[in-house]
Structure formats: C-alpha cells, structure tokens
Amino acid sequence: MKHVSKGMILATMALTIAMTCLLAIIWEFLVKVPVFETLGLGQVARSLGERWEYVLTATGFASLALVVSLVLLLDLIRDLRRTYDDLSDAQQRAEALARHDALTGLPNRRVLSDQLDKVIQRVRRGETSCAVLVIDLDRFKPVNDVHGHVMGDRVLCILADRMRICARRSETLARLGGDEFAGIIEFDSDLSAPMRYAQRMIREIAKPIRIDDLEFELGATIGVAVCPTDAVDADTLLRSADLAMYKAKREEKGTIRFFEQSMDADLRTRVAVEADLRRAIANGEIQPHYQPLVSLRDQRLIGFEVLARWYHPEKGIISPAVFIPVAEDAGLISEMSYGVLQRACEEALRWPDDLTIAINISPNQLKDRRLTERIRTIMMVTGFPLDRLEIEITENALIGDHEMAKQALDSLRALGIRIALDDFGTGYSSLGHLREFGFDKVKIDRSFIESMTQSSDSAKIVSAIVNLCLSLGLSTTAEGIENPGVIDTLIDLGCDCGQGYLFGRPMPAHEIEARLNQHRQSLLFPDDATAPAFPAA
CB-side exposure of 102: number of CA atoms within 13 Å? Predict the structure, then answer.
C-alpha cells in the first residue's frame, strides 16, 4: 500500500462508479425488456424519467456500498500495516536484546563468540593474530552491598562507556555478565599489543567515579589468551583467558596475567581438591588442632588458637595453604569454620575452665548477617562459656563495608566474646581500625617477631606496636616465637602473650588431653625438649 497514491484510489473509485452507471443504463434500456420477455415475466412499462431514476438509484447504492467497503478495507489494511510494523519493530528489538546487554548496551557473549569465530578463521588463514581478554572488576561487590543494585548498575554503565570509548573500532568489547567483560583484539606480530590494550582498560577503569555525592574507586584484573598460541577455537580461548584472570585474581588483584599451560593443570587440581573438600566437610574430616597461647610475664598456659587440619583418607595430611583458599573461593569457608568451632567447643569443655580458645573468622563470615546468631547457637548447643571464646580477624576482613563489620564485631562483643586483630603490621594496617573497632587484643605478625634478633627495624616496629597497644589499653600477643632469645625482650617491652613452635606445635585434642592428664607443665615442652618448659596455671 505504500506505493498506491490517493489519486490512484480516487481514479479507481470514479472508474468503478462510471462502470456501475453504464451497466445500469445497459440493463435498463437494452437488456431488461428482452430478459423479462424471455422469462415470461411480462412487460414493465416505465416512463423515461422512471428509467433514469432507476439508473441513478442503482448507481448511488452501488457507489455507497463500494465506498463503505473500500473504507473498511483501507482501515483493515492500515491495522494490518500497523501490526506488521509493530511486529517488525518488536522483532528488531528482540534481536538487539538477544545480541546486546540490556543494561550497558554492549554486545553480549553470543556476539562475542560469533565475532571471535570470524576472527579465528582469519587467524587460521594466516591473515592476523588475535587475543581474548577477560576483564573482572575489583571492589565492585561492596558498591552493590552498601549502596544497592541501582547504584551498582549506574557504576557499571559508566565503566562500560569508558571501556567502549577506550576500545578502538576494530576491537570488540562485550559484557559477559555481572562485573565481567571481555574484549577481542587483532594484531600482526606485535605481542605487546594485547598488553597495551589491557593497560588502557585498567587505567580507564581505575579513574574515580563520582555519582551524586559519592565517589568510587574500582580496579580490574585481566586475563589474556592468545590465538593461535594458546588455542584455536573460541570456547577454549575464552576459557584460557578466564583461567589467567582467576590466577591473577588469586595472586594479586589489579594485574594482567597471560595464560600458561600449567594453569589448566592447576585448575583440574583445584577442582579435585574442592570436590574432596566438600566431602570432607560433610564427613567431619576437617579437625581442630590447638596451638598453645602463653602468658609471657608469669609463664602460664592461658589457652589455645584453633587451627583447621585435614586428614585425607587416601592422600594423608592436606596443607591448610592448599585447602583454605579453595574453601574461600568455593564458598565453603563458613560451613567449615562453624564445624571446626563446634567441635573445638565440645573438646575444650573437657579442659580446665581457665583455658580459652581463639578462632579466626574469614572476611566472608564477617559479611554474614547471621554470624553472631550462628556463633551464639554453637555456644548454646555445646554449653561452652562465651567468655572463654576469642574471635580473631585479619585487617583484610575489614576492607569493604566498615559499618557491617563494626556491627558484627559489636554484637559479638556484647555477648562477652573477646575480639583480636590478627597479623597486625601487615596488609592494610591502620591505626583507625584500632580506634574504630575497639579490639581487645592485637596479635603482632610473626614476620616481625622472627626477625627481631637480626633486624633493628623489626625490633623497633614491635616496640612501637606494643607501646601503642599499652596506651590504648589493648593486650598483645607475639606470634611465631621460635627463638628463646626474644622472650626477655618481649617481656621488657610489655608484650603480654606469646605463641609459636617454642611453646608447642598445633596438636589434636587427644594429645593435649594426654599431656594435661600427665602434667599440665609438660604441655609446653616443644618437640626438641631443649627449650624451657613454662609452668601452666
């Protein structure tokens, strides 16, 4: 209908009316009488005026019927055309949504895969080389947690616009989902091109984001896989870049990491460890071990730090350095920690009432709004006194939502549980943390204690930490004591407690109970039996 003009329609109507009038004349003046005679209907005598009246009436009614039908037909055609246009627009929007991210407007994984297939074909023909980059945002989760998903979406849109501008016309950029993006870059033989592309992205993402009265500083960790060096198909290339990104994320956020073949083997090992760990947690194979905590000044045993140990039925002892990071990444750390705490409380109930236990909680647990309730439930179920429990956290656990962390620690302290800041002096050490979170104890990192006798700087740092804690009314514990020569120095400085292999390695409950039953003093003998034994309370 787009090609039919109004003039053509009017001309057609006029011609139709004229033909109708002509047919009425032919019928009335030429055909009617012979037809009536043939059919034996007799003759119909009409005057000339009556005959023309009939012609005009017939023509008028026929024209009216034609006009009404035509109007209805045109209206129907308009509705059909409107429906067709709506369907076409909807189909185009659906196709656009199917190929683009609804929030940022960037191409999605489907477009990325299609484009990557085309680029790989050119690589196979020797026309080019290419690299895939997987870009994962750092410190984005706190934006959602603290300010809500609406603010998180605004931040994502701003970052997507920055990355879109940063990417050149020949470089594909897509959003994979959440806070993860991917890019494709083609290059000739210059392997530094993917690195420059990644560096541009990191610089753009790292620029402060200001929305209303808020300012956010995010970062990005990027994994890179090169075609044809690392893979020659789209799925493997994306997976390789993803592996490189996660490797960089675990080792140092905010960095760029190229894929290495060993990463694939590492992933398979990690997957196997995770599967075994899930089974081990369900079967209660993760056991608490206990390392003595000693009062340095009067040389009393005052308690133990609870440490998780895994005895695999086939592989033997699995190092905590292996399974703790897997538990954290797989979201198993809370379930594992609560299980170890409950078992530790049950075992420690059999020991003298003046011995405490201390257990470290992870950053993920500190974000759990049910943390206090879960710990209180464990205390109620086991009957372990709340004032014999100490919770340790590292400063890294305080990065992010300070208010949530403060509320969690305040609620634990309200139950009568003491709070200790672990590994102080490393990571994100801040005097503001000591003031804001109101800790009961500070544990000085073992790296300073171990080097006290060789490094005057370490000794000065330990002295400064102890003096600071004394002025704030906080007790101190020196970690990693293995050299008897540092004990007198720590006592002179005013350090309260000590922990380390000098006093005993982490032991299972049955060994502790055997030593307690034998003689509480012997509990403090290390394995070599050459260091002095400290009498217990």
Answer: 5
For residue 390, give the H/E element and its range: strand 389-394
Q: CB of 163 within 8 A of CB of 201?
A: yes
Each residue's pLDDT tens digit, 50-93: 767 777 777 777 777 777 777 777 777 778 888 777 777 766 66
Place of tokens 């605004």: 154
Q: What are the residues whose beta carbons fall under 8 Å from the beta carbon of 520, sequence distance 6 or more? A: 301, 352, 535, 536, 537
pLDDT tops 90 at residue 455: no
Q: Write out the two tokens for 257.
A: 């990491």
Cis omega before residue 228 (within 30°)? yes
**Range 335-360 average pLDDT:** 95
CB 442 within 8 A of CB 410: no
Element (H, E) at 263: helix 261-283
- H/E run at residue 134: strand 129-138
Q: Is 267 exposed, middle or buried (0-12, 13-18, 19+ CB in 10 A)?
A: middle
Query: In this structure, are residues 399 and 428 in contact, taking their beta carbons and an 8 Å threshold?
Result: yes
Which residues of 7-156 form beta strands (DSSP E)? 129-138
**What pLDDT is stored for residue 536 in this prediction?**
36
Q: What is the pLDDT of residue 534?
A: 38
Cβ–Cβ < 8 Å for 326, 270 = yes
What mean pLDDT comes out for the span 351-363? 93
Task: Please report which confidence band the pLDDT of residue 42 belongs to, taking 50, 70 and 90 as the band edges.
Answer: low
Q: Is 479 exposed, middle or buried (0-12, 13-18, 19+ CB in 10 A)?
A: buried
Q: Mean of the pLDDT values across residues 148-171? A: 87
Crossing angle for the helix pair 261-283 and 333-348, to the nearest 10 degrees: 40
User: Closest Cα partner for 481 from 418, 526, 415, 433?
Assistant: 526
d(CA 167, CA 339): 48
Q: How many Å apart are CA 28 and CA 211, to the nearest integer?
A: 85
Q: How far apart are the two ends of the chain, measured CA to CA in Å?
A: 101
- The percentage of the chain sitting over the pLDDT mark of 70, rounded to a whole number, equals 88
Residues sharing a CB contact under 8 Å with residue 508, sequence separation 6 or more, in sequence order: 287, 288, 289, 290, 309
* Nearest CA-CA partner of 238 in 160, 195, 176, 170: 176
Confidence (pLDDT) at 537: 35
pLDDT, one tens digit per residue, over 282-332 is 998 999 999 999 999 888 899 999 999 999 988 889 999 999 989 988 889
Q: Residue 250 has which token pair?
A: 């675990």
Domains of the chain: 6-99 (no CATH), 109-259 (3.30.70.270), 267-523 (3.20.20.450)
Please name the amino acid found at residue 522: S
